[in-house]
Amino acid sequence: MMEEGRLKPGERIDRSRARAWVLQIHYRWESGGGEGTLCDALVETTATRTISPRRLPYIRELLGLLDEHLPEVDDLLQGALDNWRLDRLSTIDRAVLRIGTIELLWVEEVPPKVAIQEAIRLAEAYGGDESPRFVNGVLDGLYKGRATTP
To answer: Which CATH class is domain 4-147?
Structure first.
């Protein structure tokens, strides 16, 4: 797959919109008590909503990675949160941080700066007033902590 920075403008837009869909699906899943998998929540979502077929592969990739690595993602995020507990964050902030962490650490073709910037954009669009700065600080700290860990 092509590196994020080398995608055509339309492909970058599809990726950004795919991330927004992942956020919505995560929100639906978590609001429903986290029953089943995130991929199950995608199936439920596509039963009532139309998602562009161009975006579905990346949506499936991110949701699959989240299903596979969620406990590890949450442990990493909890370690990166100063004086916060992951379960006390808003549903949106928690979802944005999870998506950003997956892209930052498990999606090789997305450069770290792009993963963080895209998470900030989601926080700007869907989170509260402090969400963008908060997301930036947590993901930047997580990235810098991982970059210095052998």
So the answer is: mainly alpha
